[in-house]
Amino acid sequence: MKPTNHESAPNNGDKFQIRPQMIMPSYLEPGATIGVCAPAGAFDPVKFEAGLSRIRDMGFRIHLPTGLSAPKRYLAGDDAHRAGIVNDLFQDPRIKAILCARGGFGALRILPHLDFDLLINNPKFVVGFSDITALLVEGVKQCPFPMIHGPVVTSLANGSRETLDSLLLALSGPIPGIRIANGNTVRGGRASGIFVGGNLATLVSMAGTRFQPDFNDCILFLEDVREPAYKIDRMLTQMAFAGILAGVRGVVLGTFDHCGDETMIHDIVAERFNDPRVPILAGLDAGHGLTNLSLPLGSSVTLDADIHGLTFAPGGMS
């Protein structure tokens, strides 16, 4: 039977269409300089300074661009200003990686102002989560190198030791794999694909725009915060009926912090991804919880829901 527009239709063999000409940004050595951008919301200066201190404790230098915070309503400056800082950091050869100040809202608004030709020719890791999902997912779609779904500066202020260690590992070398100790197999199985995704509410806000995500042949990662089950259902249903979820090969659920009964969320996800060939694994410590592991979006990965494992291919390739 031909799948409807709300059913996933993957071919979950080990072969899939890998991203052409995949390259890796340079990994960071002690003393490397990390540039900070603020693509979204205005940030709390106290949490920001506390987060910067933890980055310095990792052994990195920090570059804070002039006018990093030029608040406009709830944003850290107007759209062109925020995007201009991102462009400048990519162009600056002294900057070896880019860390976002915070999420909130606003990353989607800067996408039309980014110079993706510049980004493509100056590969660097960009790190962030929550609303920064918009920048990461579009970056993965347009650039032949991974983006890192991980903490922002303000969240590092209270981040767990596991969060800090994971960020340092992701910036310093390849991530071979993750075994989820407290994982929950919602649907068993094994699948390979491109690892993409992030904050569910942000992904939904991209639907129907020219920046709509492409989840074909992917292992989809999802997380969210303070969204009750019925809203998660509504968001997934909207994406499914829009055809965005067709072609997803597997699903990994991160933290759904303050979202209610996790079992209900698992049931909703299983309904929306109703193909028995699509494995679903829950329990990854990534998102808005105390621990936010750093994950290489855009890399090739194999999900084994039965053993609660993610294995990333060396160099991002399959």
Name a few traits of the molecule.
318 residues; alpha/beta; Rossmann fold; Glucose Oxidase, domain 1; 8-stranded mixed β-sheet; 10 helices; 29% helix; globular
Description:
The chain has 318 residues and is an alpha/beta fold. Helices cover 29% and strands 22% of the residues. The protein folds into 2 domains: 33-172, Rossmann fold (3-Layer(aba) Sandwich), CATH 3.40.50.10740; 177-316, 3-Layer(bba) Sandwich (Glucose Oxidase, domain 1). It has 10 helices and 14 strands. The chain has an 8-stranded mixed β-sheet with strand order 6-14-13-8-9-10-11-7. It has a 6-stranded mixed β-sheet with strand order 2-1-3-4-5-12, with helices on both faces. A hairpin with a 4-residue loop joins strand 13 (300-304) and strand 14. Helix 9 packs parallel to helix 10 (262-272). The model is unreliable at 1-9 and 13-18 (pLDDT under 50).
Topology:
Elements lengths: L32 E5 L7 H13 L3 E3 L15 H13 L3 E6 L6 H4 L5 H5 L4 E4 L4 H10 L4 E3 L3 H4 L4 H12 L4 E3 L4 E4 L2 E10 H7 L11 E8 L3 H13 L6 E10 L4 H11 L7 E3 L12 E3 L2 E5 L4 E4 L6
Parallel strand pairs: 1-2, 1-3, 3-4, 4-5, 8-9, 9-10, 10-11
Antiparallel strand pairs: 5-12, 6-14, 7-11, 8-13, 13-14
Q: What's a quick, concise take on this entry?
A:
This protein is α/β, with parallel strands linked by helices and 318 residues long. The chain is built from ten helices and 14 strands.
| Percent of residues in β-strands | 15-25%
Please tell me the CATH architecture of the largest domain by its name: 3-Layer(aba) Sandwich
CATH class of the largest domain: Alpha Beta
Radius of gyration: 18 Å
The counted number of beta strands is 14
List unreliable stretches of 5+ residues: 1-9, 13-18
Examine the coordinates and then state which fold CATH places here, giving the name of the CATH topology of the largest domain: Rossmann fold
Coarse morphology:
globular
CATH level 4 superfamily of the largest domain? Murein tetrapeptidase LD-carboxypeptidase, N-terminal domain
Going by helix content, strand content and strand pairing, the class is alpha/beta
